[in-house]
Specification:
- The structure is a single chain.
- With about 170 residues, the protein is α/β, with parallel strands linked by helices.
- Helices cover about 30% and strands about 25% of the residues.
- It is built from 5 helices and 6 strands; from the N terminus they run E-H-E-E-H-E-H-E-H-E-H.
- The structure holds guanosine-3'-monophosphate-5'-diphosphate and magnesium ion (MG).
- The site of guanosine-3'-monophosphate-5'-diphosphate (G3D) has 16 residues, from helix 1.
């Protein structure tokens, strides 16, 4: 069985932990406890191709986005999910900056950009030009909501596909 370590990367409160919860447990917790350290969950991903892959999901359990750049956190990661909050424009800039730093530490690795909190429809404020620019750089981008579940399976499956691509 193939096993791959995946890190959750992104600014404070963009929804990293909620996305893992939604994906692994298919629930959304209205209440949330912030503890110190790293939370590790795993889930078996079955791709339409029939390939099976165990994703081991690493999530910093604190509020410090710089902790996601910690060498021990990133060590051995084969890919990552980069998360922005669609209702906070600056979190996309943070994601772009974090991506550069992660890549400089790990080298090129598959990743997917999740523009989370899509359920907050009227408050969406990510810059469309900035998103188009990332698309043209070949970034894979999936709009998600950890609340409704929209896009969540798709985003993890997209990363899984990239991990298995030759
Ligand atoms: P983090 O792990 O990136 O720091 P969390 O972010 O998963 O802890 O989420 C931060 C806050 O955003 C939480 O609210 C959480 O419920 C909320 N949230 C996460 N994803 C979504 C989403 O897709 N839609 C909506 N509407 N809210 C979301 P609180 O109030 O507990 O701080
Ligand atoms: Mg968290």
């Amino acid at each position: 069985m193939l096993t791959r370590k995946i890190c959750m990367i992104g600014d404070f409160a963009v929804g990293k932990t909620s996305l893992v919860e939604r994906y692994v447990h298919s629930t959304f917790s209205e209440e949330y406890h912030t503890t110190i350290g790293v939370k590790v969950d795993s889930k078996l991903l079955e791709l339409p191709s029939g390939d099976r892959l165990t994703l081991v999901l690493w999530d910093i359990a604190g509020t410090d986005r710089l902790a996601t750049l910690d060498a021990n956190y990133l060590q051995g990661a084969t890919g990552y999910l980069l998360v922005a909050d669609s209702t906070r424009r600056e979190t996309l800039e943070t994601a772009v900056g974090l991506q550069q730093q992660v890549e400089s530490r790990l080298g090129p690795r598959p990743f997917v950009l999740l523009t989370n909190k899509q359920d907050l429809g009227e408050q969406l404020e990510l810059n469309p030009d900035a998103l188009r620019q990332l698309d043209s750089r070949g970034w894979h981008r999936v709009p998600t909501s950890a609340l409704s579940g929209e896009g969540v399976e798709k985003a993890f499956a997209q990363l899984g596909q990239q991990l298995l691509a030759p």
